[in-house]
Amino acid sequence: MKRYYYKIAVLFFFNFVYLNSQSLTELEIKYERLEKEYLKENAAVDSLGTLILRRAALIDSEKKKSNPDEDKIIELMSGSATLSNNLERHTKRANKLEENIEQIKQQLYKNYSVIIDSLKVLISSGKENANINSMIFFYTEKRLLVSPKIPMLSFNPQKVLKIDLKKLKEPGEKTLFREYLNNALSEVNTLLASVESESKEIGQIVDLEKKTKRFLEDTEFESGMIPRSISRETGGAPEDNTGLDFLGPESRSNDSNVKAYNSLLNQLNTGNIQTPDLSWNRPMNEMEKSIDMKEYQKLLKEVKLRLQELKLVLANKIDIQ
To answer: Of 262, 255, 248, which Cα lies nearest the Cα of 299?
Structure first.
């Protein structure tokens, strides 16, 4: 009887996926299109900015001459005005596209979360299945691509670590710096919770990948349970024609999450905090190469360790009377 209800749950899930796949696919295609448009506009902004700087240098150089050519200066300044107008137009366009992209990312994140949660319910309601594990792995990867932006700390950790409340004599000054340290600690706690959440999710992906490989080695797929559209190397994830792929086991090059966490790790790299066990010292040019999930998990663990250490130091500073 339990087996019967499990099959019903599986069929219900795939009907749900089929009915909602069109709108989800349209959303993914729109996201990819806007991303391409944003990159194009951003490139135009960079190019125009460079041209404006060059013209400014030419104008300045001409003005410094003993006998400057006024007509040439006027012509250069006139051209600079046109470039500035174009720069403003492309900047506004890029900003608007970025807003739209963030809205779509939020929708995709919610949709992927619904699918992942439904798949986890299937696992809890019946025996574990390699195909379902593979699909959880697949959609979790896609959700990582549209996860919220990773913030940088708004304060300089090195400067904060130099604050010593014991050396402050004025009560008002001590209160002001204590409040500053409290705000810094609150920011670290928020960021740490976010890193811990993603680290846990990546850990689940790594475990699911291992389980799926074991299932594929030890068991055969159940015939008739998975639609033809569910086809990937592991046999369990839907075909993806949108380009939204993390990808596992290797991520796409220039992945924004990896770059953001590497930048955060560099920000946390202070000589005041001893971290003898840390080994993530890859330069940015190496970070642009694809990394696998295990390496990404290692990066998250090291960021988490640095944040925990900074949290400990801040907490101790605040407790000092």
So the answer is: 262
> Is the predicted pLDDT of residue 295 greater than 60, yes or no?
yes
- Could you tell me which of 243, 236, 41 has the C-alpha nearest to residue 142? 243
Cβ contact 142:246 at 8 Å = yes
In angstroms, the CA 123 to CA 318 distance is 46
User: Any idea what DSSP says for residue 223?
Assistant: T
- Bridge partners of 250, per DSSP, are 292
Instruction: Please tell me what DSSP assigns to residue 156.
Output: -
Cis peptide before 68 (omega within 30 of 0): no
Tokens of 15: 């009907």
Q: Looking at the whole model, is its pTM more than 0.90?
A: no
Rounded distance, CA 46 to CA 58, Å?
A: 19
Question: Mean pLDDT across the chain, nearest whole number?
Answer: 76
Q: What DSSP designation does 166 have?
A: G
Confirm if 194 and 310 have CB atoms less than 8 A apart: no
**Cα 40 off chain centre by:** 20
* Cβ–Cβ under 8 Å, residues 118 and 10: no
C-alpha 285/C-alpha 304 separation (Å) is 23
Alpha carbon distance 146, 107 (integer Å) = 9
- How many Cα atoms occupy the beta-carbon half-sphere of 50 within 13 Å? 6
The tokens for 7 are 């099959």
Distance from first CA to last CA of the chain, Å, rounded?
A: 66
Kindly list the structural domains of the chain, giving each domain's residue range(s) and its CATH number in brackets, ordered by start. 1-127 (1.10.287), 130-321 (no CATH)
- CB atoms under 10 Å from CB of 290, counted, come to 15
Provide the residue type at 59 as one letter.
I
CB 289 within 8 A of CB 259: no
Q: Decide: helix, strand or coil at residue 250.
A: strand
pLDDT tens profile 86-105: 999 999 999 999 999 999 99
